[in-house]
Amino acid sequence: MAQWFGTPSPSGTDTNSTFDRIEAAKTDSQTRQRAVNIARAKAISLNGGLANYRPENCMFSSQAEGCLIRIDSSGFIFRFKGGAPGWQQYGWSPSYVTEIRVSADGREVTDVIENSRY
Asked: Which domain holds residue 84?
């Protein structure tokens, strides 16, 4: 016979809140991925296209670890380096530093804070 050591939840609210948290986490993850994609595409466009420029490897990760410097009510802020194709793989110095703010819903660039030669 199984024993229950917890307090039963009234009308399944714990289960509902767990599902709500799971759904919110999925949505947050999708929003972050969309924001990473938008920021990366903007940097590529600003710096001459893929034939001339590659953003730092962290901008190809779904979470942009190392490039995502802040999330707040105004959106996502990414700061990353970039350079000629192969710059990071060959150990070359980056040519650009870019900082971009993407809206909180991850759908548009709201500000190019910096895009300058490194």
From this structure: 17-117
